[in-house]
């Protein structure tokens, strides 16, 4: 995913720079192109490229304590006690965590397009989740008043 985003961002910058350079100072009678328009085209290309690169910032870090997730601009820190399952459904574009409160947190960093690498990442997350569940003592039985 990061390579695709980097290639797309590079292509956008190159295309917008070429368009900006080739946009000559002229007047068509309706529209007047100036040097500021050329600079704006290049600046717009850089802005779009930055947005594309922001998609590649997604990250998942996990250890015995829990999972830290960065999805574009939103950060989550989820302890394993709050995770019911690590999901990666057959036709899902990315993996997700199903939480104890029936909420779901997407893991944009684990994309289906990454194929085997994504499968290994999900297997690793599931192994950490299983180890955390095994280390946790069983909850005490609920007591009810009759």
Polypeptide structure, described:
This protein has three helices and eight strands. Helix 1 runs antiparallel to helix 2. A hairpin with a 4-residue loop joins strand 7 and strand 8. The N and C termini lie far apart (57 Å). By secondary structure, the protein is of the alpha+beta class. It folds into two domains: 54 residues; 77 residues, PH-domain like, CATH 2.30.29. The strands form three sheets. Strands 3-4-5 form a three-stranded antiparallel β-sheet, covered by helices on one side.
What is the gist of this entry?
With 146 residues, this protein is α+β, with helices and mostly antiparallel strands. The chain is 42% helix and 27% strand. It contains 3 helices and 8 strands; from the N terminus they run H-E-E-H-E-E-E-E-E-E-H.
Keywords:
elongated; alpha+beta; PH-domain like; 8 strands; 146 residues; 2 domains; 3-stranded antiparallel β-sheet; 3 helices
Helix content: 40-55%
Uncertain runs: none
Q: What Rg do the Cα atoms give?
A: 24 Å
Portion of residues in beta strands equals 25-35%
Largest sheet: 3 strands, antiparallel
How is the largest sheet built, in terms of strand order? 3-4-5
